[in-house]
Amino acid sequence: MLAFISLLTLLPSVLSAPIFGLKIGSDGPSSKEAATALTLGDVESTLSRPAKFARVAYCSTKSITTWTCGGPCKALPNVTFLQSGGDEGRIPLYFIAHDKSDKSLVVAHQGTSSKNILSILNDAKFALADLNVTRFPDTAGKGIKVHSGFQQTFERTADGLLAGVKKALADTGVKKVSVTGHSLGAAIATMTGAFIKKNIDPSVEVTVTGFGLPRGGNKEWADFLDNDVGVTFVSNQNDPVATVPPRFLGYQHSSGEVHIKDNSQKNFVACPGQDNENCATGNSLLSVNVSNHKGPYFDDISFGHSACPDGATVVKDDD
Length: 319
Ligand SMILES: *[C@@H]1O[C@H](CO)[C@@H](O)[C@H](O)[C@H]1NC(C)=O
Ligand SMILES: *[C@@H]1O[C@H](CO)[C@@H](O)[C@H](O)[C@H]1NC(C)=O
Ligand SMILES: *[C@@H]1O[C@H](CO)[C@@H](O)[C@H](O)[C@H]1NC(C)=O
Prior knowledge:
Elements: H1 2-10, H2 17-20, E1 36-38, H3 40-56, H4 61-65, H5 71-74, E2 79-85, E3 94-99, E4 104-109, H6 114-122, E5 128-130, E6 145-147, H7 148-172, E7 176-182, H8 184-199, E8 205-211, H9 219-229, E9 231-236, E10 257-262, E11 267-271
Parallel strand pairs: 4-7, 7-8, 8-9, 9-10
Antiparallel strand pairs: 1-11, 2-3, 3-4, 5-6, 10-11
Bound molecules: 2-acetamido-2-deoxy-beta-D-glucopyranose (NAG) (3 copies).
Pfam family, one: Lipase_3
Keywords: Disulfide bond, Signal
Protein name: Alpha/beta-hydrolase
């Protein structure tokens, strides 16, 4: 019941401005451009590997270190584990691996359940905060604000992670870094991706992919991601996480959304612009389905501990 109430307080614009006069920030612009159809092949060719790595990030550190995390690891042969950080608790896990088949490094961030992510997003103490301009010097004076809880989580592992990526680039000689995650992990991935991109050789290609990504900052943050980073994120059907925190609180999605309109019909679309009304942003409040956060997305990929062999021994927070 509590979860239900907190979910309702989160639900966006429909309930807000006109009824309660609660217009706190101003809504950023939402795109109305038509979404374009994508085939399963389009989706798989760019999103399948990032999804599989984000799925591995839910398994225990021990099983990831030895690449023995059952189905999720078997789906990614030819991968060498390089480094991990976090403590599977307050500091969510991340790992760095060498994907030899793709000649790339992968940085994957662990996520959390829909219940936890919605409570983090609903926590009033996590308002928008200034982006750390010591860490991102070229953003000074741009008015960029991000979700303070996401930034605090990002800060806990940022330095060790960047050092690991730099060392791995030197050791392997690859020229590509793929940063990925689901849920909270997707939100952290956008910050990590930006941080890596600003601090490594510009000839290295950095891609950032998120699944079940909540809004992570204001319009200036969304513009920064669009202009300086480039994020692709997948919103699954009626996942409520994709539409929070609401735009009336000053949050805005970057562009790069791929929306799953209907998983069983393999109906996928690319959504031009920021907060496209034809995709998750236009979802009806009445159709919210919290299970859509976990999945399945495509190719029956779902995110959570349940796919890991030792899933029962780590904190069980699957919905
Ligand atoms: C593993 O990656 C190497 C390097 O790209 C490649 O030559 C080899 O065929 C791959 N092996 C498998 C089993 O995919
Ligand atoms: C901002 O980033 C710097 C490193 O660039 C770090 O030392 C500092 O702790 C960060 N500030 C906060 C509030 O996290
Ligand atoms: C909610 O989504 C799950 C899959 O994520 C699906 O199995 C279930 O049928 C959906 N519920 C409704 C009422 O559509």
